[in-house]
Amino acid sequence: MVFRAKVFFFIVCVSLLAVSSWQAWKAREEHINDSETNIVNMARALAQHGDDTFKAADIILSGVVERLEADGVDDVQKPRLHKLLQKRVSEVSQLAGVFILDADGNPVVDSSDTPFSGNISDRNYFQYHRDHKDRGPYIGPLIKNPAGAWRLTVSRRFDYPDGRFRGVVLAAIDIDYFRNFYSTFKIGDNGLIILGLNDGTLLVRRPFFDKYVGYNLSKVPIFRDYVTKNHHGTHTAPSTVDGKDRINAYRHFNQFPLFVAIALSKEEVLDSWVEDTLHHTAAILLLIVILALLGNWLLRQIKLRLETEAELRVARDNLDQLNRHLQNLALEDGLTGLANRRHFDIALSQEFARALRNKDSVALIMLDVDWFKQYNDIYGHRAGDDCLRRIAALLRQVPQRTGDLVARYGGEELVVLLPQTTLESAALIAERIRADIVALDILHAASPLTIVTVSAGVAMIEPSQESGKSGEPEELVEEADRALYVAKARGRNCVARHDDVKIDSAFP
């Protein structure tokens, strides 16, 4: 029982740990999934924000292009255009300036108070519009102005009525606008936000480092294997910078050739999960310790109870043994070790009742040591006791079946109870006993035979319901006693049957 209890407590503790581990792992997966969902939503929001930012600038450019192509650019229009550009820049916070360039790359009008001077025909965006008839917006490469600020250009071409190239309208977007906006997001100490062109040019990076502006991402695995091949998605991989796992989400703009990518440190994402798991694990371990202490106490109590029960069983067995011993003493003759008179009376009643139920017979042999008083007078009572013990030892070998009983009936009288035995069989047994006692050759000077002998009376009864006699067990004893009297009258050292009493009328 103690072993089963130990196994039970072990299974409970292991089950608690298993369930706790499974819940912790499930919580970890849910935490990662939630983080992936969050950065996917963040990427969608940032892409939409970028689209809206560039779209706002492009709308301004579209309006300027329409006005230029309708009204042209002359000395009368320039002041009005200058005010218009200034107003538009003041209305859109991401714009650093709007510029109008002629077909040779010379500035015509801009939004600044100090007009820009110098030819920019060598710039990428100017050459693109000059060489392409595409009227849509063009996102040019990064430009660093003389003050050291990075700008991203959005430009459109405007033409003469006959379709010839007339110039470029340019909007400069301040990169700090994106950098400041991206800094408002909580992405952890090792998180990353990147804004880049679809050709792999890095525009904005958070955290910001000037050296990364304009960096080519074409060889970076996340860009090469995922961004270039999908419009949006997520991916978890070790960082090429520090080798730590990062959860990445990316998304291309819908209207402009740019993309935004977000990376979160998996370690930082799981920080709160680790803290919760540690607290939960500590609580589980504390619970297991409490269970172990309670279980240990319970096991001790169980063990103590089992030991007490074992001691009680031993005490009970000892008491039963003592009771049996006392019972045996109560039913045993102290001198010969045979059953005593009380034991005999109980056995006789039981066998009589059994014979009555089974319609069977019960036989009885009653023995008396011949001239035993004289034996005691000659040899003393101690010798008489030894004589009875030797005869009892011989008689103890007679019972061969369950129910057979040898008892000391009183003084030198002994009885042998034989259930399910006929009168003839009982007489033969009595004769064998008589002969065996003669063979003991116990000296008896007062006996005519000079040795100890016995007389035996044999009786048999078959109980019947019709008899109506309540004293039938005693009747068997009386019949055996009468037969014994006949044996003594015949000169002793012989066996008489109860039917001999009727034949031999000389003895009442």
Automatic annotation (TrEMBL):
Family annotation (InterPro entries): Diguanylate_Cyclase, GGDEF_dom, His-kinase-like_sensor, Nucleotide_cyclase, Rev_trsase/Diguanyl_cyclase
Any coiled-coil regions, as ranges: 305-332
EC numbers on record: 2.7.7.65
Keyword match Transmembrane helix: yes
Record domain GGDEF: where: 360-500
Native species: Herbaspirillum hiltneri N3
PROSITE patterns in the cross-refs: GGDEF (PS50887)
Gene3D superfamilies with a match to the protein in the record: 3.30.70.270, PAS domain
A Pfam family of this chain: GGDEF
Transmembrane segments: 278-299
UniProt keyword annotations, A-Z: Coiled coil, Membrane, Signal, Transmembrane, Transmembrane helix
Reactions this protein catalyses: 2 GTP = 3',3'-c-di-GMP + 2 diphosphate
Signal sequence interval, chain numbering: 1-26
Protein name: diguanylate cyclase
